[in-house]
Amino acid sequence: AVSAVREDSKAETWRRCGGCRNGSDSLSKETVLNFYQKMTLLNTMDRILYESQRQGRISFYMTNYGEEGTHVGSAAALDPTDLVFGQYREAGVLMYRGFPLDLFMAQCYANADDLGKGRQMPVHYGCKDLNFVTISSPLATQIPQAAGAAYAVKRENANRAVICYFGEGAASEGDAHAGFNFSATLECPLIFFCRNNGYAISTPTNEQYRGDGIAARGPGYGMLSIRVDGNDVFAVYNATKEARRRAVAENQPFLIEAMTYRIGHHSTSDDSSAYRSVDEVNYWDKQDHPISRLRHYMTARDWWGEDEERAWRKQSRKLVMEAFERAERRLKPHPDLMFTDVYDQMTPGLEKQKEAMWRHVQQYKEHYPLDLYEK
Amino acid sequence: MMAAVRLLLRTVSSASSCAHSGSGTALLRLSPTCSSRPRAQRRHAAHFAFHPDPVPTKYGPTVKMNLFQSITSALDNTLASDPTAVIFGEDVAFGGVFRCTVGLRDKYGKDRVFNTPLCEQGIVGFGIGVAVAGATAIAEIQFADYIFPAFDQIVNEAAKYRYRSGNLYDCGNLTIRAPWGCVGHGSLYHSQSPEAYFAHCPGLKVVVPRGPVQAKGLLLSCIADENPCIFFEPKILYRAAVEQVPTEPYHLPLSQAEVVQEGSDVTLVAWGTQVHVMREVATMAQEKLGVSCEVIDLQTILPWDIETVCKSVVKTGRLLISHEAPVTGGFAAEISSSIQEQCFLNLEAPIARVCGYDTPFPHIFEPFYIPDKWKCFEAVKRMINY
């Protein structure tokens, strides 16, 4: 379901009906099956890569458990040319747009196929072709950047929008205030998509804010806002679709707060049993999971059944495992790539440092893992 | 009619286990082409060997502690003796992402150990206010890499509070702690050593310990110090560094470098994790070159102890400074410049700096990036043969 923000509010409140029961009449069976397959493929990839970190194969990982609906619902409502700024828990957006498993794996393994050239920790994806700006770890830095990008895109007059994802924790950063205010005052075609998933590492929402979540802040900036059930992929789709249409038509920002739940730990460096109960996690996993809810919708229409589920689980796991095994075997990028892209052109200073590094490594080669890297 | 915020319903747990934990293991049965521990993915060994301090004898009974436990001990001592002291930052309530504050909230209360919203500029600004009002503020920044939103508050406010007010007001009660330095896989945003940015700011003190004994004594000195202090904790040492640490409070002096190993031919200066790399370099130099190295732990970056370094360089005539942070504008540049001013005629060779390259801190290239013992050893060799 989609709920509006404060009927008594003076600002125009924006309402949309939607929800699992009747909100997807315009979406074909094919489209809906694709939603389901992308969400479950993401879930399968998450399980395998989380485990691969536990086994020491990759250094770090972050799962998306429970938030697959926010990714796929919103991504499906955008045009492929719309620019995406993310936080770090939006892999489903990239997956929906067609980022191949091999490239997800390449980034996590930091191998020679990584578009980012092996420089960043796992899950810091980026893809120019798919208009997904490379992720950085610092929180909320993308928010004012998205406002600027939307402003430039507005001036291009090319029917493009910008979407900016962040969590309810990142919304506490000063950069969030800057981004919201700039986008409103400078009239930017921008969708702010807040994944309110209940926690910022161990910090629950009642220690993050005391107001009515993030959506209620929108009117304070003169920004139309809506709160949606983030685990209802159709509600997310409908809200994002309408936000996108109006953002481009009217050159103003929209704030969508998608209520969801972070079923997994914050990352492989976190054990959330230290600060929340298994009961709480189980509730969301069993009673309010976006994947289960979509599956029930599909089975009610005879679009999906146990046979399809079994076959798809087998196939999706096979796809992920094959990509995984390929990524494991691949060499790491050439160490010259440590020195490039600091600037557009290598400086003489960096050339000298690179030469010094190679001289040193040649002399002490038995102490450097050169065999693992491309020559 | 307020919009409903998500409701958390507690239900009786069913018999089935939580889907996200553990079930992944079954999915990762390996095909024959995958070895169980492919060489490509084996975690490389740490680039240093931790050299523990000798057991302190003058501060009372000691207990085995790692670095994060020695921090907890210092904080525990502080909360016990100073009723105004409060500890705050992101996730400190449950114990912190590195477990430095485990147990403190239960012991001292939720008004004294508490989470803040996710906002570094707020954490430091709030901390300044706590300090100005006369209470002891211990602010945690989750990673030094994330300290930059607070740069304005630190540099323009905390550092200048006493000076600009004619000593009417000051931020002496403020201490900021942050995990610091490389950790093997931290990449751009979990590996930084930002001490050089703050070294450029009069009014601040910047301190980096090399192990648990130093950390507790230096942190307690920072907390007691009447100036705003930034205390960087080498995260790679949180578990790896284990020493016998006094349980009672004790203070180690700020702005006093420590000669951790005496020598006659080359002076090696470092701080934090790199001190342990230098100790190994000293051993290598002795064994392979017959060269005797004096290893100095600078400990306080600002204000730094030039006297101890000068005294050593006057003796040895050769100086090597090493840090993970990029070489250009790194703190070794300041040391090098000052020492050549003061000890020019004593120098037998140019001062050497073995530091990170002038790039962001890379993920998969870390083994090539860091100023490891081989690079430092080679620099010693060149200085000796100059």
UniProtKB/TrEMBL annotation, chain A:
It is an enzyme of class 1 (oxidoreductase). Belongs to the BCKDHA family. The branched-chain alpha-keto dehydrogenase complex catalyzes the overall conversion of alpha-keto acids to acyl-CoA and CO(2). It contains multiple copies of three enzymatic components: branched-chain alpha-keto acid decarboxylase (E1), lipoamide acyltransferase (E2) and lipoamide dehydrogenase (E3). Together with BCKDHB forms the heterotetrameric E1 subunit of the mitochondrial branched-chain alpha-ketoacid dehydrogenase (BCKD) complex. The BCKD complex catalyzes the multi-step oxidative decarboxylation of alpha-ketoacids derived from the branched-chain amino-acids valine, leucine and isoleucine producing CO2 and acyl-CoA which is subsequently utilized to produce energy. The E1 subunit catalyzes the first step with the decarboxylation of the alpha-ketoacid forming an enzyme-product intermediate. Its main location: mitochondrion. One of its GO terms (cellular component) is mitochondrial matrix. Its cofactor is thiamine diphosphate. This is 2-oxoisovalerate dehydrogenase subunit alpha. Keywords: Metal-binding, Mitochondrion, Oxidoreductase, Potassium, Thiamine pyrophosphate, Transit peptide. It catalyses: N(6)-[(R)-lipoyl]-L-lysyl-[protein] + 3-methyl-2-oxobutanoate + H(+) = N(6)-[(R)-S(8)-2-methylpropanoyldihydrolipoyl]-L-lysyl-[protein] + CO2. One of its GO terms (biological process) is branched-chain amino acid catabolic process. It is found in: Mitochondrion matrix. Heterotetramer of 2 alpha/BCKDHA and 2 beta chains/BCKDHB that forms the branched-chain alpha-keto acid decarboxylase (E1) component of the BCKD complex. The branched-chain alpha-ketoacid dehydrogenase is a large complex composed of three major building blocks E1, E2 and E3. It is organized around E2, a 24-meric cubic core composed of DBT, to which are associated 6 to 12 copies of E1, and approximately 6 copies of the dehydrogenase E3, a DLD dimer. Interacts with PPM1K. Its EC number is 1.2.4.4.
Automatic annotation (TrEMBL), chain B:
This is 2-oxoisovalerate dehydrogenase subunit beta, mitochondrial. Together with BCKDHA forms the heterotetrameric E1 subunit of the mitochondrial branched-chain alpha-ketoacid dehydrogenase (BCKD) complex. The BCKD complex catalyzes the multi-step oxidative decarboxylation of alpha-ketoacids derived from the branched-chain amino-acids valine, leucine and isoleucine producing CO2 and acyl-CoA which is subsequently utilized to produce energy. The E1 subunit catalyzes the first step with the decarboxylation of the alpha-ketoacid forming an enzyme-product intermediate. Its main location: mitochondrion. InterPro entries: THDP-binding, Transketo_C/PFOR_II, Transketolase-like_Pyr-bd, Transketolase_C. Its cofactor is thiamine diphosphate. One of its GO terms (molecular function) is branched-chain 2-oxo acid dehydrogenase activity. Residues 65-240 form the Transketolase-like pyrimidine-binding domain.
